[in-house]
Specification:
With about 240 residues, the protein is α/β, with parallel strands linked by helices. The protein is about 30% helix and about 20% strand. It binds ligand BJW.
Amino acid sequence: MSHIRNIVVLTGAGVSAESGIDTFREANDGRGGLWEQHRVEDVATPEAFARDPDLVLRFYDMRREAIQTKQPNPAHEALARLDREWDGDLLIVTQNVDDLHERAGARRILHMHGEHLNAWCTACDVRCRWTGTLIDRPACPACGEAALRPDVVWFGEMPYEMDRIFAALREADLFVSIGTSGAVYPAAGFVQNAAALGARTLELNLERSQGSHWFDETRLGPAGRIVPAWVDEMLQ
Ligand code: BJW
């Protein structure tokens, strides 16, 4: 691994699955990641929020409450160890809105789809930490307006910190995608961006994903087993 210095890791819902957080899209389980019969694509949009704000706020209130009872698993712990011990550049880009990477100790982390534990005031544009509910329309701590929404990126909205992500991809020698279905862009396209920019590409996932054919290598298995093994390999 001596030729690898700069790493970009992309994580998705699969990395938190063994912590008991549901993924969005399960292949062939018949349930298909549905929440009360709604597909995520029907709840996680600005249009859904405008049409039925109570439905959307309830969806996020339930998930915000649930993540606070969950714990990091060996995959989060292994990535935090990589963060501590890897002396090249590292950026962990997570699509996840939970805080399990941070609670495991990762610091070089970026949440491209926002964070459950943040609220965003659409009146004054301030973001603040939020652990409670939003369905009761609490006042914004900064401006007092009842205009808080979850600080997450919905379909049709621009993911956060794209400039920083592309800067890291340009410098990357290795791009590693963990526990993501490759169904949602722009994250699903990072493997092609990274390869075009000269990085080696590795996928770690439970099963083959929609994007597997783009990777130089795919290793299959639960993240709690295959991520620690990969990190051991990188740090040996
Ligand atoms: C395990 C495991 C275990 C299980 N171990 N693995 C047509 C073509 C291309 C693009 C578009 C298109 N039409 C529309 C678009 C754009 C759209 C899009 O991608 N739509 C698709 C449906 C096609 N994208 C957007 O709108 C994005 N914005 C955008 O594009 O802006 C314009 C732009 C232009 C140019 C540059 C940049 C931007 C915004 C997308 C926002 C996504 N938001 C959500 C909700 C966030 C808040 C919330 O949590 O509620 O983000 S949707 C949801 O999907 C969430 C996730 O982060 C995201 C990805 O899901 P993920 O993580 O991959 O989870 P799953 O469930 O799909 O997969 C889990 C995987 O883990 C599976 O493979 C399992 O096998 C595996 N697994 N257990 C290891 N134990």
